[in-house]
Amino acid sequence: MNGYFITGTDTDVGKTLATAALLRALLDAGRRAVALKPVQTGCPERDGRLVAEDPTVYSRFTEEYFPGGYPEACCRKFVPACSPHLAAEMAGETLDPDELAAGLEALGHGYDTVLVEGAGGCAVPLGNGRTMLDLMQRLDLPVIVVADNRLGVVNHALMTVETLRGHGLDVAGVVMTNATPPTEGDAWLRRDNVKTIAEMSGAPILADIPHLPGAPVAEVTAHAARALDRLPQPRPVDGGLDFDRDHIWHPYTSALEPLPVNKVRSARGTRIVLDDGRELIDGMASWWCAIHGYAHPELTRAARAQLGRMPHVMFGGLTHDPAIGLCRDLLDMAPDGLEHVFLADSGSVSVEAAIKMALQYMQARGQTERTRLFTVRGGYHGDTCGAMSVCDPDNGMHHLFSGLLPKQIFAPVPDCPFHAPFDPECFRETERIFRERSGEIAAIIVEPIVQGAGGMRFYHPEYLRRLRRLADEHDVLLILDEIATGFGRTGKLFACEWGGVTPDILCVGKALTGGTMTLAAVLATGDVARTISADGGVFMHGPTFMGNPLACAVARASLGILRSTDWRAQVHAVEGWLKESFGPCRELPGVADVRVLGAIGVVEMENPVNVPGLQRFFVDHGVWLRPFGRLIYAMPPYIINRPETARLGAAVRDAITARAHL
Ligand code: PMP
C-alpha cells in the first residue's frame, strides 16, 4: 500500500480537516487517492448502521470525485466517543494491528495513494498493550503529523516526532492547523511555534493552514496543496543492490561471484519484509538468535532506554548496572557451579576466551604440557582461529589455514542418535584417546546434544555424561559450547540439562540478546576462576566492547522475557508442529533423514543441495529458510504458530518435489 499515515499531536487538532484537504489536493493533482480510518469511535447509530463522522468530512471535500458517495472508509466503528481500546472493550471486541492493517489494505485496494487517518495521537491505545504505533509500524507508511498551533504545541509536536522516529517510522513532515481563531496578541507566538518545531524536529513544515471558519473546501485545499511538493518521494525499491554485489562481502561468499541476496526493509515478529513489500515467514530466527521474534517491544524498549543513558563505556576500570544485572541473571539461570562471567562480543570470541581460560588454568596448575583440546568431529565453534581449530577438520576451514591452526585431538562424530538406544561402542575411540593422550589435553570442548553448523546432528545425552566422567577422571576441563543450544532451543534451558551435566566452562551467545545485537558470555566455575587467579594471575582477554551496556541491557530484557513466558510450552508446541510438517518429507526421493528436537527441524538430503536455487524457491513461496550442505532445516522464533510452521514444512516438501534442490 502506498500513501501516508496521518496522526495528530493530540485529539481535536484538525487532523480530519487536514486529511480531507490533502485528499482533495491529491485528487486534484490527478492521483487515485482515498482517505481511510482504521478505527472510528463516536459513531451514532442511524437506521441500524453506525455512521462515522470523519468520512463525511472527506466526502464534503471530494464530492466531485465520488459522485456515487464516498466509499466505505472505516475498518471498525464504535458508538462510544472514547479511546479505541475502551470502545472495543465496551463492545466486547478486540483491535489487532495486523487485522486493522489487512482491513486497510483491502479498503485501499485499487488506489495509488491511501491516506490513513489514525485516531488521536500516536500512542493511543488499541488494547492488549498495543497502540496506534503498532499499526503504523505494521503499515510502514511515512507519517504526517498534524499539530494545532496553540500553547504547548512545540512540546507535543517534538515528542510525537521523536516517538515516531524512535519506532523506526519516517516522518514526512508536520501540517500546522489553527483550530482556534488567532487572538490579537498571539500571532508572534504562533509564528515562533512553527519556526521552533521546524528547527528542533528537523521535519519539514508541509503546510500551515490558517483558521478558516466553516472550513471552505477550496481555501483549505489550496493551503494543503502546498504540502504535495514537500512530501518525500516513495522509497526506491531494491536500490543499492548493485553496490552490494560489487563491494560488500556477505558470509562465506566470493567477492566476484556472490550468491544473490534479498534486501530486507523490516522484520517484525515471525515476519521478514523485503524491500519490494513481500513478506516471508521466518524459519531461521536469523541464524538461531531471534528466539522471541523480531523487534520485540520489550527488547526495543530496553535498547531505547539504555541508548538514552549510555550506549557504551569501557569495561576496564568501570562497571555498570546492565552488566551487573545481566551477569547476576545469567548465573541464576545457568547450571549450578558456574560462578564467574566473562562478557565477550560474539560467539567465536567467547570460544577463544574459553580456550584461553582452559590453557591458563593448566598453566596455573603447572601442567604446561596440557595444551591441546579434545573434541569430536562434526562440530562447529566459530570462525576465529582457536574456534576454527576445534571445528570439524574436514567440513571446516582447516585445509585453508592449516599452517596457522593449532593441532587439536579429534574423536569420531558421536554416532549415537538422540532418539535411539545408546550404544557404548560409539564411545570406545574417545576412551582410547584419553587413555593414550590425556596428558596433552587441557579441555574437552563440544556442543552439547546438538551439533549445529557442523551437520545438525542430535546425539545421545549418555555420550555427554560419559564425556563429563572422562573429564573428571583425567582431570581436564569440560567446555560446553551452548551458543546455538542455550536459552531453550532444544526444549531444555541449556542442552547440557538433557544429560544432567554441568560444565566447567560454558559459552553462550546468539539468543542471549534475543537476536537484537551481538553479545556472548563465558561462564566459569569457582575452581576455574580461582585457579587462574591464584598468585596474582589475571585472565588475559579484554575486548574494546566488552560488557557493552546496550547489549547487556537488551540481553537482560531477553532473559526477562524467557522467565515471564512459558517458553517450554512454546518450544514443545513448535517441536510437535515441526514433526507434523517436516515428517512427510521422509517419503520424498533424495531425503536421507528427517529429525526434530525442540524448535529444530532438519531434513537431511542424500546430496549437497543447490542453495541459490532453493533460496529463490523459498522466497517465491513466502518463507525464509537458508539451507547449507546437505541440510534443509528450520530453527524458527519460538513464537511461530502452527499455520506458519505448516507453511515452512509445505515449502520444503514442495521444493523437494519440484526438485529445486538439484
Ligand atoms: N559456536 C556455535 C555452536 C555456533 O553455532 C556458532 C555460530 N553459528 C558459534 C560458536 C560462533 O558464534 P558467532 O557467529 O557469534 O561468532
Automatic annotation (TrEMBL):
Pathway: Cofactor biosynthesis; biotin biosynthesis; 7,8-diaminononanoate from 8-amino-7-oxononanoate (SAM route): step 1/1; Cofactor biosynthesis; biotin biosynthesis; biotin from 7,8-diaminononanoate: step 1/2. The modification N6-(pyridoxal phosphate)lysine is found at K510. Pyridoxal 5'-phosphate binds at G347, S348, D481, P543, T544. The active site is at K37. It catalyses: (7R,8S)-7,8-diammoniononanoate + CO2 + ATP = (4R,5S)-dethiobiotin + ADP + phosphate + 3 H(+); (8S)-8-amino-7-oxononanoate + S-adenosyl-L-methionine = S-adenosyl-4-methylsulfanyl-2-oxobutanoate + (7R,8S)-7,8-diammoniononanoate. The keyword Heme does not apply. ATP binds at D12, V13, G14, K15, T16, L17, D54, E117, G118, A119, G120, P210, H211, L212. Belongs to the dethiobiotin synthetase family. Catalyzes the transfer of the alpha-amino group from S-adenosyl-L-methionine (SAM) to 7-keto-8-aminopelargonic acid (KAPA) to form 7,8-diaminopelargonic acid (DAPA). It is the only aminotransferase known to utilize SAM as an amino donor. This is Multifunctional fusion protein. The lineage of its organism: Bacteria, Pseudomonadati, Thermodesulfobacteriota, Desulfovibrionia, Desulfovibrionales.
